[in-house]
Amino acid sequence: MMPSLDDAPPPGKEFLDRLRAIVGPKGIVDSTSEAAKFERDERGLFNGKAAIILRPSSTEEVAAILKACNDAAVAVIPQGGNTGLVGGSTPTPAGNEIVLSLSRMNRIRGLDAANDTISVDAGCILAEIQKAAAAVDRQFALSLAAEGTCQIGGNLSTNAGGINVLRFGMAREQVLGLEVVLADGRILSTMNALRKDNTGYDLKQIFIGAEGTLGVITGAVLKLQPAPRETSTCLVAVSSPAAAIELLGRAKTGSGGNCVAFELTHRRLLDFVFAHIPETADPLGRPYEWYVLAEFAAGDMGGALMAMVEGLLERAFEDGLALDATIAASEAQRRALWRLRESMTEAQKPEGGSIKHDIAVPVSAVPEFLEKARVACEALVPGCRVCAFGHAGDGNIHFNVSQPVGADRAGFLARWHDMNHAVHEIVASMGGSISAEHGIGRLKRDELPFYKDAVAIDLMRAMKRAFDPNGILNPGRVIPDPAN
Ligand SMILES: Cc1cc2nc3c(=O)[nH]c(=O)nc-3n(C[C@H](O)[C@H](O)[C@H](O)COP(=O)(O)OP(=O)(O)OC[C@H]3O[C@@H](n4cnc5c(N)ncnc54)[C@H](O)[C@@H]3O)c2cc1C
What we know:
The protein has four domains: 13-104, Uridine Diphospho-n-acetylenolpyruvylglucosamine Reductase, domain 2, CATH 3.30.43; 108-226, 2-Layer Sandwich (Uridine Diphospho-n-acetylenolpyruvylglucosamine Reductase, domain 3), CATH 3.30.465.10; 230-345, Alpha-Beta Plaits; 352-429, Alpha-Beta Plaits. By secondary structure, it is α+β, with helices and mostly antiparallel strands. The protein contains 17 helices and 18 strands. It is globular, with a radius of gyration of 23 Å. The protein has helices spanning 13-23, 32-39, 59-72, 126-134, 152-157, 165-168, 204-207, 241-254, 267-276, 304-318, 331-342, 344-348, 366-380, 409-413, 416-429, 448-451, 454-467; strands at residues 52-54, 75-79, 97-101, 108-112, 117-121, 138-139, 175-181, 187-190, 216-223, 225-226, 230-238, 259-266, 290-298, 322-327, 354-355, 358-360, 385-391, 396-402. The protein starts with 12 loop residues before the first helix and ends in a 17-residue tail after the last helix. The strands form four sheets. Strands 11, 12, 13, 14, 15, 16, 17 and 18 form an eight-stranded antiparallel sheet that branches. A five-stranded antiparallel sheet has the order 4-5-9-7-8. Residues 42, 77-85, 88-89, 102, 122, 144-146, 150-151, 153-155, 157-158, 160-162, 211-212, 216-217, 345, 437-438, 441, 474, 477 line the site of flavin-adenine dinucleotide.
């Protein structure tokens, strides 16, 4: 059984002074106003109090902090951009956890264009890595709406997904090498830039998606892709989710695998965006119920990519899959289309309480899931407003449910567990996942035993004991309590 640090007393002044000495004055967040952004999660669901917030500047400092905390059995919460949506990166209110922010470790360590690799500190902001790649005519393929704030260490720890999974896979598929500080302070370096390395276990993969429970990622070697020469982006009103999935199949085949993003959304999300996000407008003449935002990207095809997309849409109109469409004619129009998609999370906030589900089902099952889950939620809370959108190209739907208009926010949010249960049972019956890309954190930890294989959970506990015998890394996150 893992030792539990839940009820541990806050660490004493002498111990905190030792940590202060490791990072120096620049590595400590002292003011209460500054601290708030490290102690509160993105959605405001998790508010806590850190014993101290440390911002080390090097892997060696991280190692010294972990060694000290391991020796004293003090909990450490690694934190990246703090954009995670499952309460994994913020402390509990007990005041007994150290927040370890990687934000000062933000150097691009090196870029090898001929090898298509970039080597980075874990605290690099995702958008900065994309920019560095673009500067040498390459692309770093991970992309998500939080990319201006989230850090690559957080992306790898959550195995982030985003809009390009369809073409390039999840975060773990973008990694060649990793540097990790273990709970006892040892530094594991697998920072190689090789596409072939079969020298035993692929240890880096164990830390990717572990949500900081097995080690602190301090550096990574990432794969780069050729920068696209031609891009075509379209917003298509489709006749139904089933029509969207039929269109997806045609888009993948017709483009020879060059469909890089395929996002589905219900009209309600667009209505919220037009109502709450400045300078947005409906690019189509009239409203429809379902839309697809699709993007295609390829090398130099002499303009053939656009012709392929036009042909695809023409046939989709003829066959009744598409009802209306617009293709971006400029980079500004392309950005405007993506802005609609990227604003959807923000646009739900002014509409009151929202109960979230980040689920995945097989792509072919998306239409059936959408219908069954809508019926279940509306039966549970009449008048609730289902806001379904997301990465339909890989089967991941953000099935968010906004409160009925004028309802009591707290009363609606009190149904969180019931609604999650109803939706997750449908997901499970379809062989799906209750966490497609956001992870488990604290939010879904107690649900995990109901939806994950018992042997898999046993192995997760065994790995946790092996990597972090004192249980100092992100205690109470991800790994279910043995009592459950
Ligand atoms: C508007 C919006 C859109 C989003 N869209 C997507 C999306 O499309 N796809 C998607 O997958 N996610 C999405 N997210 C969720 C979030 O952005 C991702 O989970 C992201 O990968 C988290 O990165 P971060 O740096 O903010 O990590 P944090 O939130 O700081 O941390 C996340 C977890 O990783 C751990 N961690 C952080 N850094 C390290 C490290 N260096 N070493 C070890 N553990 C660490 C933390 O302890 C925590 O458990 C979105 C969030 C927002 C707010």
